[in-house]
Write a structure and sequence with these properties.
Helices cover about 40% and strands about 25% of the residues. The protein is of the alpha/beta class and about 290 residues long. The chain binds uridine 5'-triphosphate (UTP).
Length: about 290
């Protein structure tokens, strides 16, 4: 069965980005002038996804508004003859069907994915974390969907990190299967320093069968008192197998201050209108 639906969890509190996230969802913070969430939805669309299920929470209505039509703004832009801006604003609402579901309490990533169950139903689906941006060709989630379709097992994105970074991620133990692919033999969420089974960390992209839902429902709170997707994935691995895919591309953690700054600088340097000013500015700045 082809992967038609994507779940984008975006209901977290974003405490690493306080005070901004007191009133603004972190997924709405812009990379240059485009909200993080737009990059994530664009990746899904470019990968063939037809339906996006956005998991939101209290204080996150701006995300839903962003993907809705904006009649007053559109009328204003039409009257002023700003046709390019009008087309851009309309396109956001029209290029993909976005369904919003509320996670009633932010009880963890696993819990957020489970909240999407009524909209996903009984079919395989993609998960793209709403604050992780991947710059990849083909898009990261497309790379995972290709592996899923070929091997009929759940697929998770992997990135090799340093020893010092392993305690910030879910980390796998695996055996090589093919170039860039690992058969996962175990996984642990945020291992204590020095205890990680490898340096292969799970990043924010997954392709999952619907069998994951009852496994999440049966998963007790884990690290940090949250219902961890990694814990449910480890059960899925034991039941039907999970493949790790070392994706080709670059990942930015836009929910982290440093990752957010990196993404802003690198995406700005790709924009001809900004790069011409920014590049010499950065050279001068670091030379000081
Ligand atoms: P994070 O752990 O990065 O999000 O979750 P957070 O909890 O909002 O961030 P900090 O650590 O407090 O700064 C990864 C993704 O999962 C979503 C987040 O919105 C983010 O996109 N998430 C997390 C949920 O949807 N629900 C949750 O209960 C937790």
């Amino acid at each position: 069965m082809s992967v038609r639906k994507a779940v984008i969890p975006a209901a977290g509190l974003g405490t690493r980005f306080l005070p901004a996230t007191k009133a603004i969802p972190k997924e709405m913070l812009p990379i240059v002038d485009v909200p993080t969430i737009q990059y994530v939805v664009d990746e899904a669309i470019a990968s063939g996804i037809e339906h996006v299920v956005l998991v939101t929470g209290r204080g996150k209505d701006a995300l839903v508004d962003y993907f809705d039509r904006a009649p007053e703004l559109e009328q204003f832009l039409a009257e002023k003859g700003k046709d390019d801006l009008l087309a851009m604003v309309r396109d956001i609402a029209e290029k993909c069907e976005v369904i919003a579901i509320r996670q009633k309490e932010p009880r963890g990533l696993g819990h957020a994915v489970l909240a999407a169950r009524p909209a996903v139903g009984d079919e395989p689906f993609a998960v793209l974390l709403g604050d992780d941006i991947f710059d990849a060709d083909p898009p990261c989630i497309r790379q995972l969907i290709d592996v899923f379709e070929a091997r009929k097992q759940a697929v998770i994105a992997l990135l090799e990190v340093s020893d010092a970074q392993t305690s910030a991620y879910g980390v796998i133990k695996g055996t090589p299967l093919a170039p860039g692919l690992h058969q996962v033999e175990g996984m642990v969420e945020k291992p204590a320093p020095g205890t990680a089974p490898s340096r292969l960390a799970i990043m924010g992209r997954y392709v999952l069968p619907p069998d994951i839902f009852p496994l999440i429902a049966a998963t007790p709170p884990g690290k940090g008192g949250e219902i961890q997707l990694t814990d449910a994935l480890d059960r899925l691995r034991a039941a039907s197998g999970v493949i790790g895919c070392a994706f080709r591309g670059t990942r930015y953690d836009a929910g982290d201050k440093f990752g957010y700054l990196q993404a802003n600088l690198e995406y700005a340097l790709k924009r001809p209108d900004l790069a011409a000013k920014l590049r010499p500015y950065l050279r001068d700045l670091v030379g000081k």
